[in-house]
Specification:
Number of strands of chain A: 11
Distance between the termini of chain A: 40 Å
Shape of chain A: globular
Structural class of chain B: mainly beta
Number of helices of chain B: 0
Number of strands of chain B: 11
Helix content of chain A: under 10%
Oligomer: heterodimer
Strand content of chain A: over 45%
Chain lengths: 122, 107
Amino acid sequence: EVQLVQYGAEVKKPGEFLKISCKGSGYSFTSYWIGWVRQMPGKGLEWMGIIYPGDSDTRYSPSFQGQVTISADKSISTAYLQWSSLKASDTAMYYCARPGSAGTYRDGFDIWGQGTMVTVSS
Amino acid sequence: EIVLTQSPATLSLSPGERATLSCRASQSVSRYLAWYQQKPGQAPSLLIYDASNRATGIPARFSGSGSGTDFTLTISSLEPEDFADYYCQHRSNWPFTFGPGTKVDIK
Protein backbone atom coordinates (compact mmCIF):
# COMPACT_ATOMS: atom_id res chain seq x y z
CA GLU A 1 0.00 0.00 0.00
CA VAL A 2 1.29 3.43 -0.96
CA GLN A 3 1.28 5.73 2.04
CA LEU A 4 2.82 8.74 3.71
CA VAL A 5 3.10 8.49 7.49
CA GLN A 6 3.34 11.54 9.76
CA TYR A 7 3.48 11.74 13.55
CA GLY A 8 0.43 13.14 15.30
CA ALA A 9 1.40 16.22 17.25
CA GLU A 10 4.16 18.48 18.54
CA VAL A 11 3.91 21.08 21.30
CA LYS A 12 6.70 23.64 21.40
CA LYS A 13 7.57 27.04 22.82
CA PRO A 14 8.30 30.16 20.75
CA GLY A 15 11.91 30.28 19.63
CA GLU A 16 12.40 26.52 19.69
CA PHE A 17 13.66 24.33 16.84
CA LEU A 18 11.37 21.76 15.27
CA LYS A 19 11.73 19.20 12.50
CA ILE A 20 8.70 17.12 11.50
CA SER A 21 8.79 14.11 9.24
CA CYS A 22 6.87 12.35 6.50
CA LYS A 23 7.83 8.76 5.73
CA GLY A 24 6.92 7.25 2.38
CA SER A 25 6.34 3.55 1.84
CA GLY A 26 5.00 1.25 -0.85
CA TYR A 27 6.58 3.12 -3.74
CA SER A 28 9.91 4.35 -5.08
CA PHE A 29 10.50 7.29 -2.72
CA THR A 30 13.20 8.86 -4.89
CA SER A 31 10.95 9.01 -7.96
CA TYR A 32 8.13 11.18 -6.66
CA TRP A 33 8.03 14.79 -5.50
CA ILE A 34 6.68 15.44 -2.01
CA GLY A 35 4.93 18.66 -1.08
CA TRP A 36 4.13 20.31 2.25
CA VAL A 37 0.83 22.07 2.94
CA ARG A 38 -0.11 24.24 5.90
CA GLN A 39 -3.59 24.57 7.36
CA MET A 40 -3.96 27.05 10.18
CA PRO A 41 -6.81 26.43 12.63
CA GLY A 42 -10.15 26.93 10.93
CA LYS A 43 -8.50 28.14 7.74
CA GLY A 44 -7.74 26.94 4.21
CA LEU A 45 -4.85 25.11 2.60
CA GLU A 46 -1.53 26.72 1.66
CA TRP A 47 1.32 25.24 -0.36
CA MET A 48 4.63 25.69 1.43
CA GLY A 49 7.09 23.91 -0.85
CA ILE A 50 8.01 20.75 -2.65
CA ILE A 51 11.07 18.51 -2.84
CA TYR A 52 12.29 15.81 -5.19
CA PRO A 53 14.03 13.28 -2.96
CA GLY A 54 15.96 11.84 -5.89
CA ASP A 55 18.22 14.89 -6.10
CA SER A 56 16.86 17.17 -3.32
CA ASP A 57 15.65 19.76 -5.84
CA THR A 58 13.45 22.02 -3.69
CA ARG A 59 10.99 24.82 -4.46
CA TYR A 60 9.43 27.15 -1.90
CA SER A 61 6.32 29.30 -2.09
CA PRO A 62 7.29 32.96 -1.67
CA SER A 63 5.40 33.24 1.61
CA PHE A 64 7.47 30.45 3.14
CA GLN A 65 10.89 31.07 1.55
CA GLY A 66 13.37 31.70 4.35
CA GLN A 67 10.82 30.73 7.02
CA VAL A 68 11.16 26.95 6.80
CA THR A 69 13.56 24.37 5.40
CA ILE A 70 12.43 21.33 3.43
CA SER A 71 14.75 18.36 3.13
CA ALA A 72 14.73 14.63 2.51
CA ASP A 73 16.76 11.58 3.49
CA LYS A 74 16.30 9.06 0.72
CA SER A 75 18.12 6.35 2.69
CA ILE A 76 15.15 6.18 5.05
CA SER A 77 12.44 7.39 2.62
CA THR A 78 11.63 10.41 4.74
CA ALA A 79 10.95 14.05 3.96
CA TYR A 80 11.26 16.79 6.55
CA LEU A 81 9.94 20.26 7.31
CA GLN A 82 11.89 22.27 9.84
CA TRP A 83 11.82 25.58 11.65
CA SER A 84 14.87 27.08 13.33
CA SER A 85 12.87 29.37 15.58
CA LEU A 86 9.15 28.77 15.96
CA LYS A 87 6.56 31.50 16.34
CA ALA A 88 3.06 31.30 17.75
CA SER A 89 1.80 31.96 14.22
CA ASP A 90 3.32 28.63 13.11
CA THR A 91 0.54 26.84 15.01
CA ALA A 92 -1.15 24.76 12.34
CA MET A 93 -1.70 21.33 10.86
CA TYR A 94 1.01 20.38 8.39
CA TYR A 95 0.37 17.81 5.68
CA CYS A 96 2.75 16.14 3.29
CA ALA A 97 1.40 15.00 -0.07
CA ARG A 98 2.60 13.12 -3.16
CA PRO A 99 1.53 13.62 -6.78
CA GLY A 100 0.10 10.78 -8.83
CA SER A 101 2.86 10.66 -11.41
CA ALA A 102 6.56 9.98 -10.99
CA GLY A 103 9.11 12.58 -11.90
CA THR A 104 6.82 15.60 -11.96
CA TYR A 105 5.15 17.83 -9.38
CA ARG A 106 2.73 19.11 -11.99
CA ASP A 107 0.01 16.57 -11.24
CA GLY A 108 -2.85 16.04 -8.84
CA PHE A 109 -1.66 15.13 -5.34
CA ASP A 110 -3.46 11.89 -4.59
CA ILE A 111 -1.53 10.55 -1.61
CA TRP A 112 -1.63 12.54 1.64
CA GLY A 113 -0.19 12.01 5.07
CA GLN A 114 -2.54 12.22 8.04
CA GLY A 115 -0.94 15.49 9.15
CA THR A 116 1.14 16.71 12.08
CA MET A 117 -0.47 19.27 14.39
CA VAL A 118 2.11 21.78 15.58
CA THR A 119 1.19 23.95 18.56
CA VAL A 120 3.50 26.79 19.54
CA SER A 121 2.68 28.39 22.87
CA SER A 122 4.53 29.85 25.79
CA GLU B 1 1.49 34.11 -8.16
CA ILE B 2 -1.88 32.98 -9.49
CA VAL B 3 -4.81 33.79 -7.21
CA LEU B 4 -7.82 31.48 -7.12
CA THR B 5 -11.19 32.65 -5.88
CA GLN B 6 -14.06 30.31 -5.04
CA SER B 7 -17.76 30.96 -4.82
CA PRO B 8 -19.91 30.71 -2.92
CA ALA B 9 -18.07 30.58 0.39
CA THR B 10 -20.85 28.43 1.81
CA LEU B 11 -23.47 26.37 0.00
CA SER B 12 -26.39 25.12 2.05
CA LEU B 13 -28.23 22.26 0.37
CA SER B 14 -30.24 19.15 1.17
CA PRO B 15 -29.26 15.55 0.34
CA GLY B 16 -30.25 14.72 -3.20
CA GLU B 17 -29.82 18.28 -4.45
CA ARG B 18 -27.32 19.38 -7.07
CA ALA B 19 -24.26 21.37 -5.96
CA THR B 20 -22.41 23.73 -8.26
CA LEU B 21 -19.12 25.18 -7.03
CA SER B 22 -17.10 27.78 -8.90
CA CYS B 23 -13.38 28.50 -9.06
CA ARG B 24 -11.87 31.45 -10.92
CA ALA B 25 -8.17 32.05 -11.62
CA SER B 26 -6.49 35.45 -11.85
CA GLN B 27 -4.86 34.31 -15.10
CA SER B 28 -5.19 31.33 -17.37
CA VAL B 29 -4.18 27.99 -15.89
CA SER B 30 -5.19 26.10 -19.05
CA ARG B 31 -6.78 22.91 -17.71
CA TYR B 32 -4.30 22.50 -14.87
CA LEU B 33 -6.89 22.71 -12.14
CA ALA B 34 -7.67 20.17 -9.45
CA TRP B 35 -10.43 19.86 -6.86
CA TYR B 36 -9.97 18.45 -3.37
CA GLN B 37 -12.48 17.44 -0.71
CA GLN B 38 -11.71 17.79 2.98
CA LYS B 39 -13.86 16.40 5.75
CA PRO B 40 -13.46 17.55 9.38
CA GLY B 41 -10.40 16.08 11.03
CA GLN B 42 -9.16 14.50 7.80
CA ALA B 43 -6.51 15.24 5.22
CA PRO B 44 -7.66 16.56 1.85
CA SER B 45 -8.39 14.00 -0.85
CA LEU B 46 -8.12 14.44 -4.60
CA LEU B 47 -11.44 14.45 -6.47
CA ILE B 48 -10.72 15.89 -9.90
CA TYR B 49 -7.48 16.61 -11.76
CA ASP B 50 -6.83 18.46 -15.00
CA ALA B 51 -10.23 20.15 -14.73
CA SER B 52 -12.41 17.17 -15.59
CA ASN B 53 -10.70 13.86 -14.80
CA ARG B 54 -12.02 11.98 -11.79
CA ALA B 55 -9.35 10.56 -9.50
CA THR B 56 -9.30 6.84 -8.79
CA GLY B 57 -12.37 5.68 -6.90
CA ILE B 58 -14.29 8.95 -7.15
CA PRO B 59 -18.01 8.42 -7.84
CA ALA B 60 -19.52 9.58 -11.12
CA ARG B 61 -21.75 12.10 -9.33
CA PHE B 62 -18.66 14.32 -9.12
CA SER B 63 -17.77 16.12 -12.35
CA GLY B 64 -15.50 18.99 -13.27
CA SER B 65 -15.48 21.36 -16.19
CA GLY B 66 -13.81 24.51 -17.45
CA SER B 67 -10.58 25.80 -18.85
CA GLY B 68 -8.55 28.98 -18.81
CA THR B 69 -9.81 30.99 -15.84
CA ASP B 70 -13.26 29.59 -15.04
CA PHE B 71 -13.95 26.17 -13.58
CA THR B 72 -16.88 24.34 -12.05
CA LEU B 73 -17.22 21.33 -9.77
CA THR B 74 -20.66 19.74 -9.90
CA ILE B 75 -22.05 17.17 -7.51
CA SER B 76 -25.13 15.84 -9.30
CA SER B 77 -27.00 14.54 -6.26
CA LEU B 78 -25.59 15.14 -2.81
CA GLU B 79 -25.01 12.14 -0.59
CA PRO B 80 -24.67 12.56 3.20
CA GLU B 81 -20.91 11.95 2.98
CA ASP B 82 -20.47 14.81 0.48
CA PHE B 83 -21.04 17.56 3.05
CA ALA B 84 -17.49 18.86 3.40
CA ASP B 85 -15.09 21.58 2.35
CA TYR B 86 -13.95 21.78 -1.26
CA TYR B 87 -10.80 23.46 -2.54
CA CYS B 88 -9.59 24.13 -6.04
CA GLN B 89 -5.85 24.21 -6.76
CA HIS B 90 -3.87 25.04 -9.90
CA ARG B 91 -0.68 23.37 -11.10
CA SER B 92 -0.02 25.71 -14.00
CA ASN B 93 3.32 26.85 -12.60
CA TRP B 94 5.07 27.08 -9.26
CA PRO B 95 3.99 28.26 -6.75
CA PHE B 96 0.81 26.24 -6.77
CA THR B 97 -2.03 27.90 -4.90
CA PHE B 98 -5.35 26.79 -3.45
CA GLY B 99 -8.58 28.69 -3.52
CA PRO B 100 -10.08 29.73 -0.17
CA GLY B 101 -12.60 26.89 -0.25
CA THR B 102 -16.35 26.33 -0.41
CA LYS B 103 -18.15 24.75 2.51
CA VAL B 104 -21.06 22.54 1.50
CA ASP B 105 -23.29 22.11 4.51
CA ILE B 106 -26.67 20.59 5.23
CA LYS B 107 -29.64 22.89 4.87
